[in-house]
C-alpha cells in the first residue's frame, strides 16, 4: 500500500491564518455595514439534491473574506479549509496552479476571486487568493477498508479510515478531494504531492492517513495535541 497524506487545518492554526470565528465570508461588502451578513441563495446549494448548482445557487464569481478582529495585520496562507459552507476551500494562486497540474482541475469546483479585507475595507494580503466550492470528488477512487474503521468522536454514524488506499495507481493525479464526511475539509496527497508541498508552500499541515483518525478525534485537545506535534510532517 502506497503512503497517503492528509492536509487538515485544525482549529489551532499557525500565524497567517484567520480563525474561523474571526471572519465573515460573503459575496458583497458594504463599507458602512462591514459585518452585515446577507441572505444569499448560493449558501443554500445542496449537492445531495442537485448535482450542479444553477441560477442563483451558483457560487458567486467574487467573494469577500472580511476579517473582524484587529489582531490580524496580514493574512498569508496557501491552503485553508474550514467549516464555512459545503466543501469550500481557500487557496493562493500558486496553490491553485499546483492543484490544476496534479489532478484537481476546474471540473472539480466553482471558483471565485477572494478579497481578504479588514472592517475598514483594507486588503490584508499581498498575493492573489481564490475561494473554491467543490462539486466533484474522488471518493470512488478509494478503498476505505471499512472493516477497519474508527468512530469519529462526538459525531454519530461517521467514521475514519486509517488504512484507506487507492483502488489502483492513477497516472498524473497526485492530489485528491473527498466528500466523505470526516475528510471533506481535507486534501489527500500521495508521496509526490507531499514532497512538493513541503518544499514550496507555507505551513503545510500534513499527517499520514493512518494517523489522521487520532488527529481528527483530538483536534480540539491542545494540551494533548499542540499545533507542533510529533504527527505533523516537516521537511
From TrEMBL:
<feature type="domain" description="Immunity protein 43">
    <location>
        <begin position="9"/>
        <end position="223"/>
    </location>
</feature>
<dbReference type="InterPro" id="IPR029079">
    <property type="entry name" value="Imm43"/>
</dbReference>
<protein>
    <recommendedName>
        <fullName>Immunity protein 43 domain-containing protein</fullName>
    </recommendedName>
</protein>
<dbReference type="Pfam" id="PF15570">
    <property type="entry name" value="Imm43"/>
</dbReference>
Amino acid at each position: 500500500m502506497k503512503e497517503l497524506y492528509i492536509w487538515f487545518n485544525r482549529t489551532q492554526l499557525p500565524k497567517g491564518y484567520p480563525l474561523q470565528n474571526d471572519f465573515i465570508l460573503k459575496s458583497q461588502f458594504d463599507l458602512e455595514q462591514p459585518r452585515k451578513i446577507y441572505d444569499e441563495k448560493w449558501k443554500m446549494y445542496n449537492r445531495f439534491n442537485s448535482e450542479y448548482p444553477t441560477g442563483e445557487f451558483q457560487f458567486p464569481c467574487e467573494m469577500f473574506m472580511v476579517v473582524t478582529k484587529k489582531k490580524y495585520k496580514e493574512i498569508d496562507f496557501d491552503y485553508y479549509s474550514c467549516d464555512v459552507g459545503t466543501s469550500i476551500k481557500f487557496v493562493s494562486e500558486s496553490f491553485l496552479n499546483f492543484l490544476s497540474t496534479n489532478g484537481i482541475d476546474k471540473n472539480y469546483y466553482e471558483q471565485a476571486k477572494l478579497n481578504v479585507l479588514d472592517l475598514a475595507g483594507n486588503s490584508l494580503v499581498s498575493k492573489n487568493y481564490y475561494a473554491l466550492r467543490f462539486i466533484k470528488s474522488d471518493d470512488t477512487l478509494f478503498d476505505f477498508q471499512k472493516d477497519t474503521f474508527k468512530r469519529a468522536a462526538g459525531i454519530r454514524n461517521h467514521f475514519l479510515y486509517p488504512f484507506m488506499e487507492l483502488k489502483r495507481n492513477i497516472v498524473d493525479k497526485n492530489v485528491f478531494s473527498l466528500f466523505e464526511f470526516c475528510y471533506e475539509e481535507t486534501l489527500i496527497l500521495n508521496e509526490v504531492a507531499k514532497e512538493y508541498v513541503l518544499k514550496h508552500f507555507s505551513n503545510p499541515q500534513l499527517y499520514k492517513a493512518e494517523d489522521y483518525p487520532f488527529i481528527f478525534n483530538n483536534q480540539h485537545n491542545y494540551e494533548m495535541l499542540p499545533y507542533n506535534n510529533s504527527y505533523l510532517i516537516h521537511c
